[in-house]
Design goal:
mainly alpha; 10 helices
């Protein structure tokens, strides 16, 4: 069973345009963009693929990454031109530790979405975070800028953290708040 923290982390992974811990849907791109992306697919196949993806997200939330990968792969086999399945599978691959596979799926999601819409936004955020974790800050900045242009507040916050002046200000603020909370401690503790 997933803890509340595990669910919050998975929420951030599968819906990166929502602030960590916030209510899903508050900070996401409008539904019009999603409807437009999905209109190209036969409704019955789309419904099946979406159901498989929901099953995959539920499996990932319960810690069953293997089942999640199976469901996302089934959704991709059903609608191979739909970006969302690749984006979701990328997150499960990343949870499993397959960063190269995750990057391949994120690249596919971005290509299929033509860099537009919710799937592209989520894929840019996830790829940007992977680049950031591997100290490829310029690549991270490029992807996060694209996600921010697509409406991701999370990406905008990440861009602020990549700004060296912002990072320095954040560090100084944290030190100051630490001193206020613990007046007897020193900065080296």
């Amino acid at each position: 069973m997933a803890t509340a923290n595990d669910r919050a982390v998975l929420q951030t992974i599968f819906n990166p345009s929502t602030p960590f811990g916030d209510i899903p849907g508050l900070d996401e791109e409008g539904e019009d963009g999603t409807r437009e992306e999905e209109a190209a697919f036969p409704p019955e196949l789309l419904e099946q693929a979406q159901d498989l993806e929901l099953q995959g997200v539920s499996a990932a939330e319960s810690g069953d990454v293997s089942t999640a990968l199976e469901r996302f792969s089934e959704a991709i086999r059903l609608l191979p031109e739909r970006a969302s399945g690749y984006n979701n599978r990328a997150q499960a691959l990343r949870l499993r530790g397959d960063v190269a596979g995750a990057l391949r799926d994120l690249d596919a999601a971005i290509r299929l979405s033509r860099g537009r819409g919710r799937s592209a936004c989520q894929s840019f955020v996830q790829r940007g975070l992977i680049h950031r974790l591997h100290a490829r800050d310029e690549d991270a900045r490029r992807d996060l800028e694209r996600a921010a242009r697509l409406g991701s507040a999370f990406a905008r916050r990440q861009l602020a953290l990549l700004n060296p002046y912002s990072a320095l200000c954040n560090q100084m603020l944290c030190e100051m708040l630490g001193r206020l909370r613990n007046p007897g401690s020193t900065a080296s503790e």
